[in-house]
Design a protein that fits this description.
alpha+beta; Thiol Ester Dehydrase, Chain A; five-stranded antiparallel sheet; two-stranded antiparallel sheet
């Protein structure tokens, strides 16, 4: 339940970096920033999942991170999202990640809890408006 989401709770995901997660620089395949952002979002989603009924989900609304070190193809990244603020349906996380050698990211991520029926209805209206 939403009311069980509290400051200090966290979630962690571990990912081995594969070629599709990488960009190439100087002949090395390194973990791409957009893929890192995806990992941090998935980590926050995972942290909230046990507290949401099937009728609710979350959407990301803000990401503010510093990608501070390169991670090589084949390394394993551990990402942690820790709740730092809860304001009704708005949840803010501190995000950290480490590749076993370096801390590679630090920052914040914000998500909003949405009711799926209402959210899907708005998406259907938008799809109709753009002719999808």
């Amino acid at each position: 339940m939403i009311e069980d989401i509290t400051i200090g709770m966290s979630g962690t995901l571990v990912k081995k970096i594969e070629l599709q997660d990488c960009t190439e620089r100087g002949g090395f395949h390194i973990f791409a920033t957009p893929d890192l952002v995806l990992l941090l979002e998935l980590t926050a989603i995972e942290a909230l999942a046990p507290y949401l009924p099937e009728t609710q989900s979350t959407v990301g609304t803000r990401v503010d991170v510093a990608h501070t070190a390169a991670t090589l193809l084949g390394q394993t990244v551990t990402c942690t999202a820790t709740v730092t603020e809860v304001d009704r349906r708005r949840v803010v996380f501190e995000i950290t990640a480490n590749d076993g050698v370096d801390d590679i990211v630090a920052g914040t991520h914000e998500r909003f809890i949405v009711d799926l029926d209402k959210f899907v209805a708005r998406l259907a209206e938008k799809a109709a408006a753009v002719g999808s």
